[in-house]
Amino acid sequence: MNNDPILIVGGAGKTGCRVEARLRQRGLATRSASRSTPIPFDWAARAGWPAALEGAAKAYVTYHPDVSLPSAANDIAALSELAGKAGLQHIVLLSGRGEPGAQAAESALRASGMPWTIVRSSWFDQNFSEGYLVDAILAGEVALPARAVPEPFVDVDDIADVVTAALTDARHIGKLYEVTGPRAITFSQAVAEISKAVGRQIRYTQISSAAFAEGMRGIGVPDDVIHLLDELFAVTLDGRNCEVQSGVTEALGRPAGDFADFARDAAAADAWRI
Ligand SMILES: NC(=O)c1ccc[n+]([C@@H]2O[C@H](COP(=O)([O-])OP(=O)(O)OC[C@H]3O[C@@H](n4cnc5c(N)ncnc54)[C@H](OP(=O)(O)O)[C@@H]3O)[C@@H](O)[C@H]2O)c1
Asked: Does residue 123's CB lie within 6 angstroms of at least one atom of ligand 1?
């Protein structure tokens, strides 16, 4: 493999930073790209994309704010076309399970002619420790419009391992890995496991969509983000994604990490220290 950089779109994100660390550990050059990097990349400003792609060997692509958005398919198609023109050899796309918009983005990549790998993920464990649920955990109550539908939360370290394997071994080209954790649990059970791991009472309360929107507005979350989150809860937690899938084992030959281990390790690393 030559040492042209591997472009990581969303490199400071929950998966991007882990993928970058793994590639660097292997001595590979990387180029993190987002709105705040030296070579900026903004999904809302296509004029800047060629500079981010120039000279890169491959790319790991995360779409922001969410790959289920209607704009994702067109943007992924346009980026893939530019990547082909710039001479990139492979794109690995992070996708989401059971989301029609995400599946349209996957189709756009597959139709582009660019060698591809798709990592289609369930909800991340780290939404609770690095994402939008941290403050609720710290406050002792998580209130969401999520019913008692089990979700096989996945550890983003497993996602990063799968993405790194895909970027460094051509056998993963043309593969779609549906990555989940080994066990489906409800939000209420997930919060109970975190509560046990930190040794503090943390409650889960199911609330209506309207109450969720009102609470989010109260802390200044923009309406489009509220709408997106509400739709994700309604669509991805209607039972369609309950089943555990074997993408981590298929890609890596080992099982995915369990939510209880994530909660124990995150608590030990002070993710929820008050
Ligand atoms: N969370 C989940 O449970 C879940 C599950 C399945 C799939 N996904 C997918 O995962 C993706 C998010 O990945 P992640 O969680 O690793 O990322 P993340 O932690 O949300 O990443 C934030 C990164 O995005 C960059 N960013 C924000 N707006 C941008 C824009 N307009 N253009 C370019 N970069 C932008 C930020 O950097 P700057 O501020 O410097 O721009 C930052 O580096 C989404 O596509 C989502 O659909 C998430």
From this structure: yes
